[in-house]
Each structure stands twice: as C-alpha cells, then as structure tokens.
Amino acid sequence: MFNLKAAKVLLTGGHGFLGSRVYQELVTVGVKAKNISRPRHREVDFRLAANCKKMVSGKDLVIHLAANVGGIGYNREHPGALFYDNAAMGINLIEQARLAKVKKFVQVGTVCAYPKFPPRLPFREADLWQGFPEETNAPYGLAKKMLLVQMQAYRQEYGFNGIYLLLTNLYGPGDNFSPDSSHVIPALIKKFEEAVRLKRSKIVAWGTGKPTREFLYVDDAARGIVMAAKRYDKAEPVNLGSHYEISIKDLVSLIARLIGFKGQVLWDKTKPDGQPRRKLDVSRAKKEFGFAAAVGFNAGLKKTVDWYLKTL
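The structure assignment produced for this chain is given below.
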C-alpha cells in the first residue's frame, strides 16, 4: 500500500481533461495540494531529458498523463508527431524517475495499443501483443506500449516500481471539443448542437456506424488511477474501463436525441471506421485494487451534453 498522503507528486498533464480530475481525486484522498506539482505544457517540454530530471527531483510519485492525442482525423495527419512526442516524453520521464529513485511511477496507456483484431472479446491484458494495432491508431498506441516494455524491463533490472494502466476512451464535462483534435463524443455533440442552432436538416457522420466503442466517464477514470497508485504494485498492465459497449450508430442516435436534432444523418463511408470493436475485460482492476466504474453511460453522456450546452 503506497502512502499517498505523505507523497510529493509530479502529475504531468495535470491541468488537462483527465489530469484536472486526477488532481482533485488526489486532494480528496488526502494528498496536500502544495505537494502536487502539475506544470503546464507551455512551461515544461517533457520530451527533453533535462526538463524531466528537474521535475522528478525530490518526488515520491510520478503520474504521467501528458500526451499528444486526438481523434481519427488528427491521427491520420500527425502520425510522426504522435509517435515521437509520446515515446520521448515517457522514455525520458521513466529514465529520470529511475535515476532520481522515485518510489512509484504510474504510466497511463491506451486501448489503442491493443491489436486491431484481438483473439477474443472483451480485450484481455494477456492479448496485448497478439497483433498489430488499428492503422490510424498505431503510431500513438505503439509509442505508449513501448513504455510498458520499458517499465517491465526496469522492474526486472533495477527494481523500479512502475505500473501501467490501459484506459479506454474517456468522455465527460470539460472534454476537448476542438474540431481538429476531438474524439468521437465531443465531436458529435458539437456537430449536432451546431446543426440545431443553424437549423440544418442533415449532418454527416464518419464511416459506417458499425464499429463499437467502450467509454469511461472521466471522473471514474481519475478514481481508478488514484486507486491503482495507492494499491497496485505489479508488472502486469491493467485495463480501466466501464465494460459497456455501444455502436457508433447507436451513439449518434443517442446524442441526436439528447441535443434535440430531428434531421437526417448521412454516413460518409469514404471516411475510416477505425477499430471494428472495443470492449475491455475489467476484471483485473476489480480483483487487484477494487475498481469498478460507477457512472452509467446514459447518465454520464447527459451530464456531458448539459455541460457543453451551458458553456455556449
């Protein structure tokens, strides 16, 4: 059991969508706010080893959330930056944390690391290496997956206490709604809201609508990360998800109903679908540190839509 209350923490990405929730969860469980360092991206470039060395100095715990990440369109346009930025940040932080004798390192990975066609559903951690990731996600997913290899190697050679969490797609109030880099839920919410406001009779959605996704409410994700930081100390990766699967077509219908869009949805089949199915086996998280998602998808999605409409 890691003593969080006494820890000095480096939380990368600590002002972001997920990071701000992890910060609040750390404070809720007793970590002193003054002991949590969460530099902004414009202040510290974690791709540089010298910056990582400075930031991990004197820390007991590092939770690495900072990432260059986006939706399918962003992934297709920036595969090189996605690979380099995510690999460089993680590799340098883990190495400098080891050299600084940081007591524990929590690396947040991604469902995008899983094979495009895993041998079974739901995705089990043991199947992480049973195939190549979906092509549009591969540079990002593989960069993140290499950090699992690094931490397992460091545990074996140096006794470095690093744990690795595989998160499914997140959503919730405060998400990224930028049309250039948003994920599917905020992108659809924004698209439908604009259609209603501008009295459009049609909207265009990407792909066929057939793929499925699993979504985890951001507050649940933050709680799971902090629970793992406190209670989990093994080399094996752990899935964090909701165990709820929904097709993109059904997701589109649900968001349209919540927004009040009554027009026509056209499917642009020239656009990629991405991975055919995503659903995580979350039994290891439950067994190892007692995590289970608490927010149901319909309730969480309504909270997200309501928040977005209030911010306009």
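Interim note for the steering committee: Residues 170 and 216 are 5 Å apart (CA to CA). The chain has a mean pLDDT of 96.
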